[in-house]
Specification:
Shape of chain B: globular
Strand content of chain A: under 5%
Radius of gyration of chain B: 25 Å
Number of helices of chain A: 13
Helix content of chain B: over 70%
Radius of gyration of chain A: 24 Å
Distance between the termini of chain A: 43 Å
Largest interface: A-B, 98 and 95 residues
Strand order of the largest sheet of chain A: 1-2
Oligomer: heterodimer
CATH superfamily of the largest domain in chain B: MetI-like
Number of strands of chain B: 0
Number of strands of chain A: 2
Structural class of chain A: mainly alpha
CATH topology of chain A: MetI-like fold
Number of domains of chain A: 1
Number of helices of chain B: 14
Largest sheet of chain A: 2 strands, antiparallel
Shape of chain A: globular
Chain lengths: 302, 286
């Protein structure tokens, strides 16, 4: 077997075959079918009929479609904005103050507990909260009654005015551990000499936080923002368990709307349209993020 | 003067009052985080009468397991555990193998079009499952694979391996070249390089991937909900989520059902906590 410079790269491509075949069968082909179906009227039984952009036109004037994406923006607040900010503050607090006063063991113990919601299947987390929020016998209302706060007893998930807000609070509870764990790890990279130098120069805690800490862990902040924003768009299990998108359309999200179109209304064309729009948003977000990261690296950041 | 000021501030900041306020704040935060899980655990072991008379915050007056047993038997929970374990461990094994093969070609072999292929693989991670679900459902039906564990295993092996392909490829791009060169000179074949050099040296990363794939697959909801319709094939999260409200469950049986969904994950967490935090960090940085 002659091995020379020219065939050193050869013989590797065959190892990619199983992965590539799987990728085509499970991801690429289904995705192309979905995009194709978004231009058709199809109930899954009869042959699909080409309708051009009709589904997209319908989406433009579909109140429920806009409600789903509006709710999605609110979910980004609950899944990305609030947990990232809280996670930053909390991780700096734990890393900079708490672990110095109480030691790493207690700090890590608290960090682990705050991460627990993240390890639950989303649907199970939903089941747990649904039990607590049950209007008749849930522990929240029962406790409020016992405390004499009868006026606060409420059908939390059954009232269109409160349902979305409650789901958002649950999502903050669910998400907070993720940025916390990532930022705590990132903070170990921050050069303590930099902070000491800043302190000698008279920088206060806030200045150190904004100009040094945040700056140094920027790559992780971007990753958290990107992954959680995409995650917000894919929220399904919680909505399925907690509210099924209701009451009315008050907690409808894009993912649940596609599910309804596909499997409740047998409107494959329209469901595919919503799924395609979701994909487009994710692709745009991802490219914007990669560009930002490349720009950062070009500026000499890691 | 400046220095003195700083010293003063420091001493003030370090005062025990601040210390205990900080501790109290953390305890409150932890209590809020644990509140739902503690509520479920506390009330799963109460009789409905106990709950009705003492409410959710009290300790059970007696250790009541009837709700747990009833729910377990009604859903044949051991079957759901077995389904979840079978699907998750198969996906973990095949997913790790597939990631290793992909990354071997891309990271060690550096085959042509590496960057493009890597982006294509990342699609598996980024495309929303909503954009795949209907065709997958349709193909599965056409191939008589609908409502089988096999189709779920195949689909998630491919979807999960995207992450590992990406992670391992970047790990392999720093793989010591001399080792491979030396093996080639000794006449080692590609498969020997993979099985005797690359694989043993990447075992730590592979084990992190295994744990991740297992837990991710265990927690999956959307696709298994659609692809596994019969009760005998369902996984733990699907069974528990879809059975809420189907039976006329009393309040404590309902808590017991939620507890049965939470427990396996808590066990994984305790077993794999170190691996998990290590892996989350690794995945986020590169």
């Amino acid at each position: 077997m002659a091995k020379n410079h020219f065939d050193r790269r050869k013989g590797y491509a065959v190892y990619l075959m199983p992965g590539l075949i799987g990728l085509i069968a499970v991801i690429i082909l289904p995705f192309l079918v979905t995009v194709g179906a978004s231009f058709t009227k199809w109930n899954g039984v009869n042959p699909p009929q080409w309708v051009g952009l009709a589904n997209y036109q319908r989406a433009l004037t579909d109140v429920k479609f806009w409600a789903a994406f509006r709710n999605n923006l609110l979910m980004i607040i609950a899944v990305t904005v609030v947990p990232t900010i809280l996670g930053l503050i909390l991780s700096v607090f734990l890393f900079d103050y708490f672990s110095k006063k109480f030691g790493p063991v207690l700090t890590n113990f608290f960090k682990a507990i705050l991460y627990i919601p993240q390890i639950l299947p989303v649907a199970i987390a939903g089941v747990v909260w649904k039990w607590i929020l049950n209007p008749n016998w849930g522990s929240l209302n029962t406790t409020l009654k016992a405390l004499g706060l009868e006026s606060l007893v409420h059908n939390w998930l059954g009232d269109p005015d409160t349902a979305l807000g409650v789901v958002m609070v649950i999502m903050v509870w669910f998400q907070i551990g993720y940025p916390l764990v990532i930022f705590m790890a990132a903070l170990q990279r921050v050069d303590p000499e930099l902070l000491e130098a800043a302190e000698i120069d008279g920088a206060n805690w806030f200045q150190k936080f904004f100009y040094i800490t945040i700056h140094q862990i920027r790559p992780e902040i971007y990753v958290v923002i990107l992954t959680t924003t995409i995650y917000a768009l894919k929220l399904f299990g919680q909505i399925y368990v907690l509210t099924r998108g209701g009451p009315g359309t008050s907690t409808i999200v894009p993912s649940y709307y596609t599910y309804q179109a596909f499997f409740e209304q047998a409107n494959i064309g329209y469901g595919s349209t919503i799924a395609t729009v979701m994909t487009l948003i994710i692709v745009v977000l991802t490219f914007a993020f990669i560009r930002l990261q490349v720009k950062q690296e070009a500026n000499g950041e890691g | 003067m400046e220095r003195d000021n700083n010293m003063l501030k420091k001493r003030h900041f370090a005062s025990p009052v601040h210390k205990y306020i900080a501790l109290a704040a953390m305890i409150i935060l932890v209590a809020i985080t644990l509140y739902p899980v503690v509520m479920i655990a506390l009330n799963a072991f109460k009789s409905p009468q106990d709950y009705a008379s003492h409410g959710p915050m009290s300790f059970p007056t007696s250790f009541y397991t009837q709700g747990l047993i009833d729910f377990w038997n009604r859903v044949t929970f051991e079957k759901k555990l077995l389904n979840s374990a079978l699907i998750s461990s198969s996906v973990a094994i095949f997913g790790v193998i597939l990631s290793l093969l992909n990354a071997f070609a891309l990271g060690i072999g550096k085959i042509k079009g590496k960057a493009f292929l890597l982006v294509i693989f990342l699609l598996g991670n980024f495309l929303p499952q909503e954009a795949l679900v209907y065709p997958l459902y349709y193909f599965a039906k056409a191939l008589h694979l609908y409502d089988t564990k096999l189709v779920v295993i195949i689909v998630f092996t491919v979807i999960q391996s995207a992450f590992g392909t990406y992670l391992l490829t970047s790990v392999f791009s720093e793989f010591p070249k001399e080792l491979i060169e030396a093996a080639i000179i000794d006449g080692a074949s590609k498969s020997q390089i993979l099985s005797r050099i690359v694989m043993p040296l990447s075992m730590p990363t592979l084990s992190v991937l295994f744990v991740f794939y297992f837990i991710w697959t265990w927690n999956e909801f959307f696709l298994p909900l659609i692809l596994l319709i019969s009760s005998s094939n369902q996984t733990v999260p699907i069974a528990i989520a879809t059975l809420q409200g189907q039976f006329n469950m009393d309040v404590t049986t309902s808590a017991a059902s939620a507890l049965l969904g939470v427990l396996p994950c808590l066990i994984f967490f305790l077993l794999f906590q170190r691996t998990l935090t290590r892996g989350i960090t690794a995945g986020s940085i590169k």
